[in-house]
Structure of Major membrane immunogen (Membrane-anchored lipoprotein):
Amino acid sequence: MRFVWAVVAFVLATVMIGAGIAQRTVLHAPKTASQAIEIDQEVPFILIDGAVFNTHDGSQTLRAQGEGTIFGAYGRTADMTAWLSTSDYVHVTVDDGDVVATTVSAPIPETPTDDSAAEDAPAADADAAAGGEAAGLSPVDSDLWLAQFQQEDVLIEALQLPEDVSMLVASDGTAPAPTELSLTWPTGATTPWAGPLMVGGGILMALGIVLYLLGLRHVRRSRGPRRKGLPLAETEPIDLSVVEADKGVISAAPTRRQISSGKRAFALVPVVAVSALLLSGCSADAWPRFDSTPTPTPSDTIIVPEGQGQPAVTETQAERILARISQQVADADEALDADAAAVRLTGPALAARQTNYSLRAKLDTEAPLDPVPATPLTTLLPQAYDGWPRTFMAVVEAEDGHATVMMAAQDDAWSDYKLVYTASLTAGASMNLAPPYVGAIAIEPSSPFLVLPPDQVSAAYADVLDKGEASEYSQYFDLESDAFLAQMASNRADRLKTFEETGKETGTLTFSAAAGAQAPVSLATLDSGAIVAVTVNDSDTVMATDEDAVIKLDDSPRVQTLTGATQSAVGFTTVFADQLFFFVPAQSSSERIQVLGYTSNILSAKVEKE
């Protein structure tokens, strides 16, 4: 019976090992699936739709081959097509399950009828409109891209793109894009039972060998009847080797114990060898996986309004944009170059820098403005909008606890993001914002759904700065927690006291505030309120009241530098630009408008005329 079980074990072992080896060889499916993309026309750009990347499950690997530098970038499909709307390109899509490449031609630009129309055209069409040859769009470092890559001759990138994200492949925007393109995906083909089958077969083979040896032993012990010999004393067994030695015969045959141990050692060698061989050929995908499903962590439910667009930027994208802005502004600060600053600044943020550069060029005592911080980004609220212009709000907090709040805007698909507003965040400022992956809609300047429409906040707050609690708008603002109002009131009182001690008899010092010219930027909060950024121009006017009096600027080098005058018989006006961030609650709310951040910089000065 032992031989029967040994044969059964050998047969099962052979079947299992054979099945395991077959799974790893002849029955093994391909590990990857590939798709060649045929491009038969030379164009500067190739756009591969997200649907092409998702024709197979799993991660995607793009391979592009050509001569020279190969550029690749991916972003939201709507942003990509908007950016490419002025250029010829090949759009690779999926049609009825087949990957097809379609050439998209740029519209022929209309001849502009005036200078303003020419200014509105993107850079790629400017030369063409002027009668010259278009230089092409450079895809490098566009703020629209979620990520970009550059390699020489061959570009290979592992990706994980969703359906609504597309890949742009180009050279430099002018030369033809590489046409040798292919995509590969892992098929996920594994052989999870190959390892158990081969190892199990090895175990059965070892078991069969053991059963076979046990069968041999049993046969030897049961060889039929033997003759009876003389009775032997139970305590004195006969040792045949001794007897033979006494007779002068030396036996060369080993004892039974030696024979048995030798056979066992000989039998274990092939078992160990086969097991080691099988185990060495089994990789991780030859074994079943029993990964436990992670328990999802509950999170707050955010209901996205129907029809709301995609967030303008992601967190990674915003960090990259802020880093570029910070570097560009730092270079402009060092060179005192207002044109360089205008590449990444606009509105009140640029105006403050321009004035500072003018003062620093002539005054050694004038300090530079604070640099634009880039990291760490602690708060991001992008506008949820698919068109242009679009904006986002960011808060960057330094290690010392000082936090800067900024509003950046992008005019069109070809423009860089520029800082419009920047201010220091007040201590304890609280904002109920949507997560960055949801974003927020922009609030119309004349929206009636807030305590005050955004386009009235600046003028109303200017009136509060001048009149305090006597202002008709004071009821809308939280004056008790307003650090900027307290600072302005204290500053005005100190300056007025100093003036009265020196020039009260010959002149007057008055203060006034007015809404700035820059349009407000507003983004909605989760409690139906809005974050509103505005400017207020705060003016100091010194006027002479005595015909024989002359107002000198001995103690005002900044005003002297900006006006180019040292004295005036009439007077001087100095304007400071205040950049302010407010939380404006909903009209139905019992809360009041709160100041979240502020900064104040000298803007201009002029000599008054009679």
Notes: The chain is about 30% helix and 25% strand. The CA atoms of residues 241 and 247 lie 10 Å apart. Confidence is low (pLDDT under 50) at residues 123-134, 242-253, 256-269. The two ends are 127 Å apart (CA to CA).
